[in-house]
């Protein structure tokens, strides 16, 4: 099996260890800031994914008219339109889009975890197969956890501390006055149990 570090000298990696530590600290601080305001972090991340989808959809549409053959043009055009519509949906209703993204992410984690576990079991005589199986089980459990803790399109599962009485979502003084956050009623509705 090829090793990723065969081509990179270890002295080059060791001399830049401070950058890896700094990046880890920066990501930890950003994660703690995001935990401070989950609603804002969710909306910002959905808007970011929406911008990426819009950019990808426009790129697909431009590419659609550069290929030969109607079957290829049709495929690239439909793919591009799907990406553009998904990107627009992220901006129109970020709360529903976040629920859909959570669902797709949890499904992807479960599938990747099951596949990784299967690959690890197939590598059983090789060294390190147990670590691959363990990472597959942890990945699948993270997918199930995201599914259980995330907001579902049909409503959230009851999670302690997420009731509207505890979070203050029913208090009119805490509602934002910004006209673009009309989804606040949807959030208040989804968090009631």
UniProtKB/TrEMBL annotation:
Could you give one GO CC term from the UniProt record?
A: plasma membrane
Q: Decide whether keyword Transmembrane helix is in the record.
A: yes
- From the UniProt entry, list the residue stretches annotated as the region Disordered: 152-174
Per its UniProt record, what Pfam families does this chain match? Answer: DUF308
* Origin superkingdom: Bacteria
Where do the TM regions start and end? 17-40, 46-66, 73-92, 98-119, 131-150
- Keyword Transmembrane helix (UniProt): yes
Tell me the keywords, alphabetical order.
Membrane, Transmembrane, Transmembrane helix
Spell out the protein name for this chain.
Uncharacterized membrane protein HdeD (DUF308 family)
The record lists the organism as Rhizobium aethiopicum
């Amino acid at each position: 099996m090829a090793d990723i570090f065969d081509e990179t000298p270890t002295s080059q990696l060791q001399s830049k260890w401070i950058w890896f530590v700094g990046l880890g600290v920066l990501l930890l601080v950003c994660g703690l800031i995001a935990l401070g305001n989950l609603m804002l972090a969710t909306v910002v991340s959905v808007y970011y994914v929406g911008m990426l989808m819009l950019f990808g959809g426009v790129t697909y549409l431009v590419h659609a008219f550069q290929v030969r053959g109607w079957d290829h043009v049709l495929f690239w055009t439909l793919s591009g339109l799907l990406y553009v519509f998904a990107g627009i949906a992220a901006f129109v209703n970020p709360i529903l889009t976040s629920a859909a993204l959570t669902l797709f992410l949890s499904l992807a984690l479960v599938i990747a975890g099951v596949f990784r576990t299967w690959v690890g079991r197939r590598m059983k005589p090789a060294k390190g197969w147990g670590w691959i199986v363990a990472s597959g089980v942890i990945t699948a459990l993270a997918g199930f956890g995201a599914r259980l803790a995330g907001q579902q399109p049909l409503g959230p599962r009851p999670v302690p501390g997420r009731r509207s009485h505890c979070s203050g979502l029913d208090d009119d003084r805490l509602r934002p006055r910004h006209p673009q956050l009309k989804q606040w009623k949807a959030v208040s509705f989804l968090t009631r149990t």
